[in-house]
Amino acid sequence: MRLPFHIVKRPYMKTYQQVIVRLLAVLTAFAVTSILMIILKKNPGRVLMALLYEPVKNGYFLVQTIKLAVVLLIISLGIGLAFKMKFWNIGAEGQIILGGIGASYLGLFHNDWPIYILLPVMLVASFVTGGLYGLIPAYFKARYNTNETLFTLMLNYIALSILLFLQYGPWKGENAMRPEFDNFKKNALLPSLASSKPWSDLHIGWIISLLLVVIVYIYMNHTKSGYEISVVGESVNTARYAGMNVRWITMRTMMLSAGICGIAGFVQVSGNLKKLSVNVAGGLGFTAIIIAWLSKLNPVVMIVASFLFSVMSKGAGFLEYQNISPAASEMIQGIILFCVLGAEFFVNYKIVRTHREVAQK
Amino acid sequence: MIIASYIYIAVRVSIPVLLGITGAIFNEKAGNTNLGIEGMMYMGAFAGFYTAVATNSVILALIAACLFGAFGALIYAFATVTLRTNQVVAGLSLTIFGQGIARFLGNTLSGAKGESVRIPDAVTQKVNWKILGLKDIPFLGRALFGYDMIIYLSIVLVVIAYFYINKSKTGLNLRAVGENPAAADAAGINVSLYKYVHICIGGAFCGLAGAYIGVVYLTTWGNNMIAGKGWIAVALVIFASWNPLKAIYSSLLFGFTSLIALRFQDSPISPYLLEMLPYLLTVIILIITSVKMKKENQQPASCGVNYFREER
Do B270 and A155 touch (CB under 8 A)? Predict the structure, then answer.
């Protein structure tokens, strides 16, 4: 069969063109969503309004949105490191939970320490517990080439079991009626820079996240270890021929990736939730995978993407007022992802008309 | 008697995983690692549930579930085969999308008040059609003949899948596509068509798995119906070494470990720790299979890499 056109690789596309292609993809996704809403007899304008405008409408909502964006940003940074190495870490959920548990151990049982000692120690603890949890699949990947996608995923469920075990068992709080973790005391909570409402609700997690953006950016682009990650990601064999210790690089990178996800767990318990809870991860690890990928693993772009997805996730809550399930937000995120993924085709390939002479050969 | 009822429970838990594994095998034999199994199961669960409630028909419900699962697979196939996007990310997108659309549409079922929706009794009765009298045979009657008809149908489908993949000519071509698409292409096999068709068949299996969970097993709509069974299926494909017949015992192993978590909740060990057993087992299986990987039991060679004819 001879088609009048065929597909060839596109060697290069200018950055602004790439940006336009991706924006068009996001717009396409909203168009598809609107069509779907019309089919379901919902008002697409109001759905998009709830999803995109309500969460930034006033200071109070905006603060909540930023708080979520901060956590998403941190997780995306962590995932991005592993993805750069083509190590498919989809276990961020579990690493967040473990990081949260690590931080909460100090927040619950050592809350008599002064705040300027307690908080940094909690941060380090969350990094270490999250990182060690990520090191388990990394070791087996490096040593035996065990499938890391499934391994990290199973660890999510195991982490959740550990958390529930603690909640109903040894770490059960003082509330006799309901098995819950205790609220953190004041010196285990991230403080705020502002003193008046609503901004006093915005804890300093945003500073942590922006610092991490800078650190990860420099690490990935301007250090030898960061460069090794991208070489291993491009081709393990090339890395070996160049004399790199692939096993060590795999474990080191994954430890960092999971550790950063652990820090996200610390910000969750110490900033957003103000206690440990089953919702500490709550699907954020999966949303962050989308963010990391859509940002092309670029830490700076992740800031924008995290904010956009935070707006949409918070917007899900507003959908309920219109009798629309909040799951719509999840569905729309899936549609956006497919559209942007599809758009990458036009970045990497182009369709050209087949010339008659060529076709007849 | 108690052993028979344990077997009964374990088999019922393992059937959706079995169908999921078979669906994943179809994908991987075509050279695609599809992480969207969980999403397609959700889609099938919704379609089956909705159709069962709306029409009171079991057969229509199963068909609808297969079609909706295959539809999800079609999106994935378009993304990976035609647009050549990264298979891992495309699969994850499918899971996120499938979960989202199933929960979104499923919640419209329950209406504004959010009361729970159940499968009508008429459907449940039809499903639980039993082989007359056989289940009353003492001791093994229930463990062998006590199930709903979908279980027998599933096992038949899985056996057919085995013979199709391993013994038929199209199955041979399919394996060629998964092992070496360039060679298959040179031999005149339409690689894209083979991939599309078998990814969609895999999707239909996953849809059926979801329908089993929704219509037969749980019978009440819930947002976390599948609860990771799709992911477990993806993992157990390795244990089943890409063979639908071995998938039967792999899934049964999962069924029996879940049974421990379900049945021994009064033991001194916390039930929450027991709940992690199936996942822990999957991890251990993953490790063992990767430590002693045999040459003949490998994943199809082209898995994860999209085929582009002009790139050789």
Answer: no
Question: Domain-by-domain residue ranges, chain B?
Answer: 2-291
* DSSP codes joined into one string, A117-173: HHHHHHHHHHHHHHHHHHHHHHHHHHHH---HHHHHHHHHHHHHHHHHHHHHTTT--
Query: A344–B108: do the CB atoms touch at under 8 Å?
Result: no
- Contacts within 8 Å (CB) and 24+ apart, B289-292: B289/B238, B289/B239, B289/B241, B290/A140, B290/A144, B290/A145, B290/A146, B290/A147, B290/B238, B291/A144, B291/A146
Pairwise CA distance, residues B70 & B198, whole Å: 10
pLDDT tens-digit series, residues A30-84 = 999 899 889 888 888 888 888 888 888 888 999 999 999 999 999 999 999 999 9
Looking at this protein, which amino acid is placed at residue B133?
A: G
- Give SS3 for A98: helix
pLDDT in tens, chain A (361 residues): 566 777 888 877 788 888 888 889 989 999 998 998 898 888 888 888 888 888 888 889 999 999 999 999 999 999 999 999 999 998 999 999 999 999 999 999 998 999 999 999 999 999 999 999 999 999 999 999 888 888 998 899 899 999 999 998 888 888 777 788 889 988 899 999 888 888 888 999 999 999 999 999 999 999 999 999 999 998 889 999 999 999 999 999 999 999 999 999 999 999 999 999 988 988 899 889 889 988 889 999 999 999 999 998 888 888 877 777 888 888 888 898 889 888 888 888 888 887 765 545 4
Domain annotation for chain A: domains and CATH numbers: 1-42+326-361 (no CATH), 60-323 (1.10.3470)
- Say whether A164 and B92 touch across the interface (CB within 8 A): no
Pick among A338, A348, A349, A358 to test the B interface (most B CBs inside 10 A): A338
Distance CA A48, CA B234 (A): 35
- Is A147 in CB contact (< 8 Å) with chain B? yes
Give the one of B270, B282, B310 whose C-beta lies nearest to A169's C-beta: B270
* Residue in B84, B103, B276 nearest the CB of A330: B103
| Residues in chain A within 8 Å Cβ distance of B283 | 151, 154-155, 158
Do the Cβ atoms of A67 and A203 come closer than 8 Å? yes
Q: Mind listing the pLDDT tens digit for each residue in A82-134?
A: 999 999 998 999 999 999 999 999 999 998 999 999 999 999 999 999 999 99
Q: Which two tokens stand for residue A288?
A: 């962050």
What is the architecture of the domain spanning B2-291? Orthogonal Bundle (1.10)
Token reading at B239:
């244990």
Determine whether the interchain pair A158/B83 forms a contact, defined as Cβ–Cβ distance below 8 Å: no
Ramachandran bin of B165, using left for φ above 0, alpha for ψ from -120 to 50, beta for the remaining angles: alpha
Strand partners, A8: A350
Number of inter-chain CB pairs under 8 A, A vs B: 149
What is the maximum alpha-carbon separation in chain A? 83
Q: Among B84, B94, B100, whose Cβ lies nearest the Cβ of A330? A: B100
> Is residue A7 within a helix (H) or strand (E), and if so which, with residue range?
strand A5-9
Q: Chain B: residue nearest A287 by CA?
A: B96
Consecutive H or E run containing A5? strand A5-9
- Contact with chain B for residue A321, Cβ under 8 A: no
Contact B280 A144 (CB under 8 A): no
Distance from CA of B77 to the nearest CA of A (A): 12
Question: Is residue B296 predicted with pLDDT exceeding 70?
Answer: no
- Exposure of A279 by Cβ count < 10 A (0-12 exposed, 13-18 middle, 19+ buried)? exposed
In chain A, which residues have their Cβ closer than 8 Å to the Cβ of B311? 9
How many residues are recorded in chain A? 361
